[in-house]
User: Fold these one by one.
Assistant:
Number 1:
Amino acid sequence: MPVKILSVDDEIDLELLLTQYFRRKIRKGEYEFVFAHNGLEALTMMVKHPDIEIILSDINMPEMDGLTLLAKVNEMRNPALKVIMVSAYGDMGNIRQAMNNGAFDFATKPIDLDDLSVTIEKAIEQIEYVHQSQKEHTQLESLKTDLAIASQIQQAILPRVFPPFVEWTEQIDIAASMHPAKDVGGDFYDFFRIDDHRFGFVIADVSGKGIPAAIFMAVSRTLVRATGIRGGNPSDCLTYSNHLLASESVDCMFVTVFYGIYDLNTNEIVYCNAGHNPPYILKSNGTVTPLPMSLDPMAGAIDGLEFHSQTCKLEPGDALVMFTDGVTEAMNVDFEEFGEERLERTLETVGGQSCEGINQTVKDQVASFAKGAEQSDDITLLTIKRL
């Protein structure tokens, strides 16, 4: 598309002069000139040609002078529209005023067309820069909108109704939350019914952050749920999930997973820990004990691995508190981490609270410790309590 230039001058000879000098660029379709003889005509031409990008305007004209026209152009607030003022060499007062009022540049009469050509080229460079910036801004706004929608979708796929199993509310309490560090996160939690006395639950943390982690999170969650809902051993579920994730992994992404099956008849938990932070068992007497450190690696990193199951049991009043490293690695303004010791001390104070109360106390303590420091990682908690 040619750059459209509006020349505003009451001297008719200037039209011939410009079209003759720039004839090659006009023939090549690089420039297109339109003409007006005063400010009022210029405004009319701008309505007819809204794609005008450069205005060459004389200052002293009848009906509406160039300074008034410049003021009208400024009201349009179009950063891609550049005004080059033209006036007699001795009219430096008006030229200075025009420059102070936002003119891009100026030329003096008699016009040096070679110099004017250079000035127009400079204006075109600035216009192209503005257009590129506007394009990037539009893309950024579109991305922000997409991220906001993605965040809503991500939160929507995580269970948010508590208690999730109404018929078991006298036996078990469950609460969970996920707060991403960015618009979308890589953490997730889930729980699902397997049969009339067992349910599966999972908490996981995908490597990386942002959109790639969110996509990998959605794939991992779907895969673990679809496999786990069949009711097989957690180790078999993660062995199979690891095979599929590793074979399709991009940029060596992986996910740490703690997946367990709770049996309401025995209150026994069969679980498999694929490289995740060991959860804590919060005893009814207030003592806090971590589960054994996992010997299995994260899922999705290496294909062909075998994962292993372990067991634990909840006594009446005991709770299993699961978390992602966004809790223990939360930093304050001095770059100190919240750490496992602070988490254990916090859990020692929440005896008798509901799962929601336990999670909220941990989140409050992390926020108090951070003291306004930027959240560096997703913070996710999942707590199950035997009533």
Number 2:
Amino acid sequence: MVNIGNDWDDLLSGEWKRRYYIDLREFLKYEYQNFRVHPQMGDIFNALSLTSYKDTRAVILGQDPYHEPGQAHGLCFSVKRGVKPPPSLQNIYKELENDLGQLIPIHGDLTGWSKSGVLLLNTVLTVREGFANSHKGKGWEYLTDRVIELLNQKQTSVAFILWGANARAKTAFITNPIHKILTAAHPSPLSAHNGFFGCRHFSKTNDFLRSTGQKEIEWGAISRGS
């Protein structure tokens, strides 16, 4: 039913036959036929397509896609090139600059992080235009919780970067002691000054990966070609 194009296909093959996903699929058919829904159908699984299970060394967990036209393309906090970076992403860039001295890109496309081993996963993968959280509770959470459970089973260490209360709630699925959990306030302008700024999660992630003998994340990859 779904073709992701890498090792996630085998790992998640059983999910497409489960009742929750069959119901979710019918719900999405109705939504896409009757409303404007983001991201485009072909972009829904971009996070998994761009970052295979094997290659995942860090996870940034978002809530649901941006709900305004032209923004969402299947990666949490990321927007398509040509779209102004939203406030939360602007704050992420500020922390990246303060932490690692990275130049702030002029675009909001985080695909470079995905290709460097960062799974940019929302807990809900679709949204109706103009209505944040409109697809919450429709079944996506079962799938994305399974993704986290599978990553928890990895024999190589993963850094889980959890910003905000919704993301921190997923710590219940991260029980393997070889992994690293990094938590902070959400980068939203409403909360960034309450613990997001100064969290240094980018350098801490690389410190952790280096300590486990793994390649660091190329956080500067998004600045190329900007």
